[in-house]
């Protein structure tokens, strides 16, 4: 369930479908740089994972994690074990199953290490979360019972004033009656990832608010000129988004030498196609270069 596995599956799908990263970026309305990072196992948020899986026509759980048991399609295997989810059990992954007919629930022995508390019943489990979190999980389980397949959910649990984020995915198992009578799944502590994701989301909201309040057009691009972020939508600009994108592509192609010098020279005032701008070169924490355009 490594990040590398996700990247390799994505690359294999793009090759199989003869689809370029640019087409994926356009289809999902994200930057090509973001898609490139995903192919290298970079973090992908739930919303983009949903859109990416739909765009490629694959199951999002498989895309992110790899093979899982297709119990929802099988029947008559009343004694199926959670290990048939095809994921190797490790100290970080809790395996569980819930018999819907009897109400009995069982967890792997490492549940206390992952959840921070020993669980022996569903009541123990539900008591760890708020009403909205419980409702969200119940709706997900109901969807599995109605439609089959697999479902992934993030939820927060609280114990003694401390909280953890758990990512859980489940699939249904059909009983002798041909209906889903058991849920089996895996869960893991995703507190670190979720905390980073929420922090980045908050920073992104701050960033977008700052952009929206700037009194001139600002655009961030990759080194090919593709727009990564901009306050264009909040500005009364005469130039359309498509025209702006075309302008930046042309700038990168026709001013390649000057762009190459920006890193050493620092911000530079440039007039291109009657547009006055200040262009500067930067790099993010992963040393990925990007440019910032201030239009005057």
TrEMBL record:
Q: Where is the signal peptide?
A: none
- Domain (HTH cro/C1-type) spans 10-63
- Which keywords are on file for this protein? Kinase, Phosphoprotein, Transferase
Q: Which domain of life is it from?
A: Bacteria
Q: Provide the top EC class.
A: transferase
Please give the Gene Ontology molecular function terms for this protein.
Answer: DNA binding; protein histidine kinase activity
InterPro entries the UniProt entry points to: Cro/C1-type_HTH, Lambda_DNA-bd_dom_sf, PAS, PAS-assoc_C, PAS-like_dom_sf, PAS_fold_3, Sensor_kinase/Photoreceptor
Organism lineage string? Bacteria, Pseudomonadati, Pseudomonadota, Gammaproteobacteria, Oceanospirillales
Outline the extent of the PAC domain.
149-202
Its Enzyme Commission number?
Answer: 2.7.13.3
Transferase listed as a keyword? yes
Offer one Pfam family short name for this entry: PAS_3
Listed name of the protein: histidine kinase
Enzymatic reactions = ATP + protein L-histidine = ADP + protein N-phospho-L-histidine
């Amino acid at each position: 369930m490594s990040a590398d596995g996700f990247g390799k599956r994505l690359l294999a799908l793009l090759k199989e479908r003869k689809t370029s990263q640019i087409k994926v970026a356009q289809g999902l309305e994200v930057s090509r740089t973001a898609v490139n990072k995903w192919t290298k196992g970079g973090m992908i948020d739930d919303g983009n994972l949903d859109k990416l899986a739909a765009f490629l026509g694959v199951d999002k759980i498989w895309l992110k994690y790899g093979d899982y048991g297709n119990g929802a399609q099988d029947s008559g295997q009343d004694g199926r074990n959670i290990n048939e989810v095809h994921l190797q059990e490790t100290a970080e992954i809790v395996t569980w199953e819930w018999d819907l007919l009897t109400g009995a629930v069982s967890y792997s022995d490492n549940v206390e290490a992952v959840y921070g508390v020993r669980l022996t019943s569903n009541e123990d489990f539900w008591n760890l979360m708020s009403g909205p979190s419980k409702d969200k999980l119940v709706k997900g389980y109901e969807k599995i019972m109605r439609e089959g397949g697999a479902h992934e959910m993030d939820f927060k649990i609280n114990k003694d004033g401390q909280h953890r984020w758990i990512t859980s995915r489940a699939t249904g198992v059909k009983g002798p009656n041909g209906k889903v009578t058991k849920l089996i799944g895996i869960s893991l502590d995703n507190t670190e990832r979720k905390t980073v994701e929420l922090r980045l989301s908050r920073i992104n909201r701050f960033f977008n608010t700052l952009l929206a309040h700037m009194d001139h057009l600002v655009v961030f691009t990759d080194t090919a000129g593709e727009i990564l972020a901009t306050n264009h939508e909040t500005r009364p600009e005469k130039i359309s988004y498509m025209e702006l994108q075309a302008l930046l592509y042309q700038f990168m192609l026709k001013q390649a030498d000057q762009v190459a010098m920006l890193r050493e020279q620092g911000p530079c005032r440039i007039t291109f196609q009657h547009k006055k701008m200040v262009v500067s070169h930067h790099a993010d924490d992963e040393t990925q270069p990007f440019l910032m355009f201030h239009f005057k």
